[in-house]
Design brief:
This is Calcineurin-like phosphoesterase. By secondary structure, this protein is α/β, with parallel strands linked by helices. It has a single domain (38-364), classed as 4-Layer Sandwich (Purple Acid Phosphatase, chain A, domain 2), CATH 3.60.21. The protein contains seven helices and twelve strands. It has helices at 3-24, 63-81, 106-117, 137-144, 211-228, 243-249, 276-284, and strands spanning 45-51, 86-90, 122-125, 165-170, 180-187, 232-237, 288-293, 302-303, 313-316, 331-338, 347-354, 359-364. The chain has a six-stranded mixed sheet with strand order 3-2-1-10-11-12. Strands 4-5-6-7-9-8 form a six-stranded mixed sheet, covered by helices on one side. 46% of the residues are buried. Bound molecules: 2-acetamido-2-deoxy-beta-D-glucopyranose (NAG) (3 copies). One 2-acetamido-2-deoxy-beta-D-glucopyranose binds at residues 60-61, 100, 103, 106-107.
Length: 380
């Protein structure tokens, strides 16, 4: 072998090695680029389906099996009738106090099957039942993010809880494809019991969005504002902030705020003041349009923020499954963000699609929401 060809081979092999090393250094978190990116459709709209409080995995050896099959039917039915571009799973995937250590996360595969069948991307928040003696948030995260359709993130691992992140929504294919037009915020209200911690299933994790997370939220908002200006945003969190309780105490006239209001009082984050940093951050976030919670299976209304003008709307999701407490008919809260008509600006509409196909509580969350008169929701 000549010296030149030896040099060639050394160079070739070194380059090859460097490339191999580079590719192997890509950690699982960097798989991001293969995920679908959220984009408005041709008409300038994005529709979200919120599945709340699925509570899979109860009573493994009996009625729980049928219960989960019925819940899967709810998801399938609704996805057969609506065509969202994103699903949000808004906490309490699994009733973790009922499941077994060796297979608690098996339920995740059953939960997401209807979403995978529709090739529908989803983003989650975790609930207080997702952390229990035999189920950890970390395991849940590992399992759900093994699907390319999962957009769930943990943006800053130093924050308490896991599902603290945001997703950007980009303009329609023919328009501002490279520019985000809206933000979806996701927060972890934590709660539940530490994994494999005795006494089993004794809730020991604080059940509110941590003040550190509230600070992170404000910083991220400022950064996004510096880059893109004020963007419309929606927020998702499992346990309601205390403003939801204040709204309910204010009396929620069903002709203005349609939707079942049977969970009285609203079960909130902490005892009413622990979430103050988070609530202040929500109020300080310019462009934040509305906040969507789960947790209370018997509430499905949207309210104005009590005592405030120009504050985000407060919306309960709709219990979407047969697991968990309560026998209210099941449904899915749908949210449609539309940038279609430039003159009107952005419009946000929401309704509940019931398991039987009915559409109830369809409202426009606009400037006159709270004054506009709506039919009260029957059949919920
Ligand atoms: C946790 O899982 C183990 C192993 O399957 C089971 O024996 C135990 O009863 C479960 N414990 C609780 C508290 O759910
Ligand atoms: C999990 O394990 C339990 C106990 O062995 C069993 O009864 C149950 O069917 C299993 N669940 C799943 C989803 O595999
Ligand atoms: C808000 O939406 C309702 C229902 O579509 C409509 O009647 C009302 O005029 C809207 N208000 C504004 C300010 O556009």
């Amino acid at each position: 072998m000549s010296l030149t060809s030896l040099r060639f081979w050394i160079l070739f092999l070194t380059s090859f090695l460097i490339l191999v090393l580079l590719f192997s250094a890509i950690s699982p978190g960097d798989r991001d680029f293969i995920h679908p990116r959220l984009q408005l459709d041709q008409s300038g709209a994005l529709t979200i389906a919120i599945f709340a409080d699925l509570h899979y995995g109860e009573e493994e050896n009996g009625w729980g099996i049928d219960q989960d099959i019925k819940s899967t039917h709810v998801m399938r039915n609704v996805l057969g009738m609506e065509s969202p571009s994103l699903a949000v799973i808004n906490g309490d995937f699994i009733t973790g106090e009922n499941t077994f250590r060796e297979n608690s996360t098996e339920y995740v595969h059953r939960i997401v099957a209807p979403l995978v069948a529709h090739d529908l991307p989803w983003a989650s928040t975790y609930g207080n039942h997702d952390s229990k003696f035999n189920l950890s948030r970390e395991a849940l995260f590992q399992t759900e993010t093994s699907y390319p359709q999962s957009l769930t993130r943990q943006m800053d691992p130093s924050l308490p809880g896991m599902t603290n992140y945001y997703l950007l929504i980009y303009g329609p294919p023919s328009g501002n494809e490279e520019r985000p037009v809206a933000v979806l915020w996701f927060f972890d209200s934590r709660g539940g019991a530490s994994y494999q911690h005795e006494p089993a299933n004794e809730d020991d994790i604080p059940n509110w969005v941590a003040p550190e997370t509230a600070r992170w939220f404000s910083t991220q908002h400022q950064n996004l504002k510096a880059d893109y200006g004020i963007l419309l945003s929606l927020a998702f969190v499992h346990i309601p902030p205390h403003a939801f309780l204040d709204a309910q105490k204010g009396g929620l006239d069903p002709s203005h705020f349609p939707g079942v209001n049977d969970d009285v009082p609203v079960a909130i984050q902490g005892k009413g003041s622990e979430d103050t940093a988070f609530v202040d951050a929500l109020l300080a976030t310019e462009g934040l349009h509305s906040i969507y919670v789960g947790h209370d299976h018997g509430n499905a209304w949207c309210s104005t923020w009590p005592g405030r003008e120009k504050a985000p709307f407060l919306c309960c999701s709709k219990h979407s499954a047969y697991g968990g407490y309560g026998t209210w008919n099941r449904g899915v809260r749908m949210v449609r963000i539309s940038f279609g008509d430039g003159a009107k600006g952005c419009e946000v509409e929401t309704w509940v699609r019931m398991e039987n196909g009915d559409i109830v509580s369809r409202v426009s969350l606009n400037e006159t929401y709270g004054i506009d008169v709506y039919p009260t929701a029957d059949g919920e």
